[in-house]
Amino acid sequence: MGNIMLVVAYDGTKYCGWQVQKNAITIEQKIYEACQKLFSREIKIVGASRTDTGVHALGQIVVLKVETSIPINKIPYAINAYLPEDIVIRDAKLVTSSFHPRYNAKNKTYEYKIYNSRFPLPQYNRYAHFYHKSLDIDKMKKAARYFIGEHDFKAFCSTGSSVKTTVREIYKCEVTVEDKMIVISINGNGFLYNMVRIIAGTLIDVGRGKIEPDYIIDIIDSKDRSKAGATAPAKGLTLIKINYD
Amino acid sequence: MGNIMLVVAYDGTKYCGWQVQKNAITIEQKIYEACQKLFSREIKIVGASRTDTGVHALGQIVVLKVETSIPINKIPYAINAYLPEDIVIRDAKLVTSSFHPRYNAKNKTYEYKIYNSRFPLPQYNRYAHFYHKSLDIDKMKKAARYFIGEHDFKAFCSTGSSVKTTVREIYKCEVTVEDKMIVISINGNGFLYNMVRIIAGTLIDVGRGKIEPDYIIDIIDSKDRSKAGATAPAKGLTLIKINYD
């Protein structure tokens, strides 16, 4: 038997992000503990995306290295039995031992939600950033297009991350709105630390008229973090899907 | 100055419904307390709909009988300052002292949400009933149409309620689905106790093949509660809007 790939959804509200760390409850740790209980032995788990504190997921990908006689279609039910309600295994399938959820990922889709209204809605509190001032959606749509393509996104990367290159390719960056809920949908071959949240914060600056849409080109060219907008709050961000070959 | 009409949204998860009662925290009580603090005097509040424990609202209507010098457009901000995050005043306007939120209501719209998938999603846990077996949407759509019109809905009313008549008129009853989320949208001139939840439970019975769509006619005709389906869980229900002349 090879390794097991899991598709995981979670509400990140109560967790200190994905990755196991000391003195903090993380999603990786909860899944690790659930698997330990289920399989009653040492297991190794590897996640595709190290989501931050408060960030949500519908399609996080996790690889479990474990030998088990549980049929693959029963694995989600078996692990879910040991997980809290805010973390759910949605699917499981067998993968070869060479499959790596991060290195083999072809592209990822994130969504950033902004509820743009005079007053917040309790129903949206957990999964959307509330912004009460009026936003010019047409300008935001126009600005979003400038992110598409291969660029050095150094200006859209929080300091403190060590990566070989800050060049990434964005395949899709789209702003849609329905009933005052603005959704920024972005797909790319990889994302820098806080990149989607900084793009969201910058698009909010465009929407409120602080900067013009084509100024996005200048920010990208500057490679200067201080030229881009604020890092928008974590709760608006959801990892939607990770695609593989 | 006349009375003040408020449009209220709430997440009913933590509350024992709308109406003030002893030894339980209700939404009416939270709004009453917030208004007491804000206006520092006796006030009277009347809600349009006595939503049950766990039921949500986007458009509950409340009338406040109070004299105040606070401008009407500032009222929502002022009351919200004293409310918890899961209750929000979305709008306020002046109404005549003869306006009654319940007696003057022309029709109400409710939505009942069913997330129909193999596994639940944490993001939907609070506002949708999770149902894992496959449901035949076309049959549910067909069945929904039989509720439209003026009928005696005694079979769709929980016992324990004392009403003069169990006749109500339903103007719209529609089933839609998007990404495995089934939404039953229903508009009528009034609803009996648990009526929408029993209709939802009965439509689930149609979807899973327990009864045929046209059996809805027989259930209505029977005026027998035991012929209809189970009362679907409260968390799937949201009071969307109350319309007035």
Write a compact overview of the structure shown:
The structure is a homodimer of 245-residue chains. Helix content of chain A is 20%, strand content 31%.
Describe the structure in your own words.
Chains A, B: Its EC number is 5.4.99.12. Chains A, B: Formation of pseudouridine at positions 38, 39 and 40 in the anticodon stem and loop of transfer RNAs. Chains A, B: InterPro entries: PsdUridine_synth_cat_dom_sf (IPR020103), PsdUridine_synth_TruA (IPR001406), PsdUridine_synth_TruA_a/b_dom (IPR020097), PsdUridine_synth_TruA_C (IPR020095), TruA/RsuA/RluB/E/F_N (IPR020094). The structure is a homodimer of 245-residue chains. Chain A has 245 residues and is an alpha+beta fold. Chain A is 20% helix and 31% strand. Chain A has five helices and ten strands; from the N terminus they run E-H-E-E-H-E-E-E-H-E-E-E-H-H-E. In chain A, helix 3 crosses helix 4. Chain A is globular, with a radius of gyration of 19 Å. The relative contact order of chain A is 0.19. Chains A and B meet through strand 4 of A and strand 4 of B.
Report strand % of chain A: 25-35%
Question: Strand pairing plus helix content of chain A: what structural class?
Answer: alpha+beta
Shape of chain A: globular
Give the largest chain-chain interface (CB within 8 Å): A-B, 24 and 24 residues
Helix content of chain A: 10-25%
Tally of extended strands of chain A?
A: 10
The oligomeric state is homodimer
GO molecular function (chains A, B): RNA binding; tRNA pseudouridine(38-40) synthase activity
Pfam family, one (chains A, B): PseudoU_synth_1
Domain Pseudouridine synthase I TruA alpha/beta (chains A, B): 7-104, 143-245
Binding site for substrate (chains A, B): 110
